[in-house]
Amino acid sequence: MISANNISLRFGKRALFEDVNLKFTHGNCYGVIGANGAGKSTFLKILSGEVEPSTGSIDITPGERLAVLKQDHFAYDEHPVLQTVIMGHERLYSIMVEKEALYSKADFSDEDGMRVSELEGEFADLNGWEAETEAAKLLNGLGIPVELHEQQMASLSGDEKVRVLLAQALFGSPDILLLDEPTNHLDVASIAWLEEFLANFDNTVIVVSHDRHFLNQVCTHMVDIDFGKIQLFVGNYDFWLESSELALKLARDANKKIEEKIKDLQAFVQRFSANASKSRQATSRKKTLEKLTLEDIKPSSRKYPYIAFKPDRTAGDELLFVEELSKSLEGQPVFQNMTFRLEKGDKIAFISEDNMAHSVLFDILTGKTQADSGQFKWGITTTQAYFPKDNNEFFDGVELNLVEWLRQFSRDPDETFIRGFLGRMLFSGEETQKSVSVLSGGEKVRCMLSRMMLSGANVLLLDEPTNHLDLESITALNNGLINYEGTILFASHDHQFVQTIANRIIEITPSGIIDKRMSYDEYLESKKA
Q: For the domain 320-528, what is the CATH code?
């Protein structure tokens, strides 16, 4: 068990959170949520001992091992991949190093023999003989092939290093596991593997993530950072979200009798309790949910941006024809002979094991780069708006404030209109005078979405639009695209985002495409079959 006792963190006069008292117990998975800047990652660093709180203490049950997903991608460059994973269990690795040093001594003494005997006993107790096998399984599950296991970490790409460091944190069944955005840089298969791994993990997990499907699949509790406090709620993300919305509704409905409010609560809990069997610890969670009172659920202070895309005109029947399109990078084919037709009402999710594939395709379709061969043609009634994965060209070195920047893309130059639009995207007051060159990643994404909304386009192309967004902005964007009456081509690693928006899936492979008119979950099931 790990507990936070009277934890406060202050920066000058500003308190990030105050008087936090929480216990994280064996067998549960806790998802830490909160608006950007609320202190989610900082709280994990306090739990791990990396950041010292202003007041209070963190207590861990004696003898329990804590593992943390490391963020320094260059820290292990001089070590082989498999060894890097095993280094996640510091005691086991230190035994391995000491054993090797003793066995290699030319003047091996009786004293050395006694020490080796002690080490061998502890090595066996820590399951050391299975260490390399376990490390290899973790790497394989996270998409690191066997041929890379003996390579130096320095030779791996950034995405591959992230996966190795995740395997390192998972290695050796730590008693307490702290994970900050573990699904970043993982493909669909690796995320599914991690979900299964954590759902069956018997010890304590505390995780920060913006992936709603992931939080729903693995979490038994939510840890909400809001109002300068950190509070613990039973249930997964969807339960927390809907309970906070219910609490807000009940609070606003002042004339409603307590008995009616309790009925609303009971109906809500009953619905979620019925679905609890899909998750681990189903029985205990159901019992806990049924004990909830009106005081246990609280409204959230979260703010959601207003995201709505409205096409200026309806597109005709001829939207886009792609024929025999091929593209290679550095001599390697990204895709070959790609042929498909875009139809009215299509909301197509492009997926691929190659993270570059959909980006290259979108760049070709928007004229940013050229195909090696083949052709495509947009219908004359279509207008396109593009959200690229890398938006730096729109902001780097640009000496404009937010109002001036957005005015470039608006047919109505009036400042009142521009400020009103920015206000709906959660930029208000003096924020609108901030230079766009100093915006955070999430703020830049909200600016790019504002640009797209003002375009009035009837075809949207979006490449990983949820990157850098908080959960509230992801939800708002998700709903905006569900309600959009035009056509969408998009790519995302957010499972819930893809499942709720797409009505057609195109998987890009080096040799061609797999094109299915079905939901994402149906597509994944068909792949399994």
A: 3.40.50.300
